[in-house]
Amino acid sequence: KKEAAMKDEL
Amino acid sequence: MNIFRLFGDLSHLAAIIILLLKIWKSRSCAGISGKSQILFAIVFTTRYLDLLTSFISLYNTSMKMIYIGCSYATVYLIYAKFRATYDGNHDSFRVEFLIVPVGGLAVLINHDFSLLEILWTFSIYLESVAILPQLFMISKTGEAETITTHYLFCQGLYRALYLINWIWRFYFEGFFDMIAIVAGVVQTILYCDFFYLYVTKVLKGKKLSLPA
């Protein structure tokens, strides 16, 4: 299962 | 963080502030699509729910709060405080034709089938078309106030700068998010027509009027 990408952008 | 993303965020912040101040100072939302502003409020709400679950940086958190606060304030000014100046007849884009397909696409194509991820994906897809009611309204009225064109320019420039930011991050960090990139390309393409008019007319001091 792909880790939900860390959202560091607005 | 890189210079392109920083200036992208600052351009986005400028757009949001320009619009809010324009409506507040002129006490009028003539020529402004309330529907687009509602879509942007939905975009920020569904994208920034992670404010409740994760802390990335003071910059990240404060910008998200400012975006959400200003977008709701703008919607409030349009539909409540200055509703008498709201031009509902020309703000007639059928937003359900945007929300339903975008919602369906977010459920079908996403990085992870979790609620937060699907809502984030929905907000990315919705943002790419959220300006359509505004562009549609300008095409119906055939003109736009100069301050509105500056708002639109900053709004369009922000995602164009993000595209460069993603090239930068792919090259230097190997980071890329195909969903955000494809939606960002679509979003920026939708502004091309406006960018052309802005550069050839507004920057030459003329009023932005479309051939009726």
Automatic annotation (TrEMBL), chain B:
It comes from the Eukaryota. Coiled coil: none annotated. It comes from Parambassis ranga (Indian glassy fish). Belongs to the ERD2 family. Keywords: Cytoplasmic vesicle, Endoplasmic reticulum, ER-Golgi transport, Membrane, Protein transport, Receptor, Transmembrane, Transmembrane helix, Transport. The keyword Hydrolase does not apply. InterPro entries: ER_ret_rcpt (IPR000133). Its main location: membrane. The chain crosses the membrane at residues 65-82, 94-113, 119-138, 150-168, 174-199. One of its GO terms (molecular function) is ER retention sequence binding. It is found in: Cytoplasmic vesicle, COPI-coated vesicle membrane; Endoplasmic reticulum membrane; Golgi apparatus membrane. This is ER lumen protein-retaining receptor. Pfam families: ER_lumen_recept (PF00810).
